[in-house]
Here is the input.
Amino acid sequence: MTYCPVHEAIQILQEKWTLHIIRSLLDGPKGFNELSRAVGGCNSATLTHRLEQLEARQLLTKTVISYMPPRSSYALSEAGVALGGVVDAIAQWGLQYLHPDAEGRFHVGG
Here is the structure.
């Protein structure tokens, strides 16, 4: 199989909550609870798992602030910050092409 960077990037970014986490961290480092509130709707176990995955892929860094009580801070790495352009492109596409219907659901329209 030939290497395809689009395929590989999608494999990372398609995980639920991943882009929400990255978007939130583009504003700067956050603690776990602050990040959880910013992402909204993601349970703690899933958020922990996604953060571990993103750290393993070197898209973010985790800094342990204290062990008792446990406190950590999460920040994007250089590669994570570079995804800001991807988030911006998605936002621009959404502004241009997504429109709410009468029930508030979004659909593609011109």
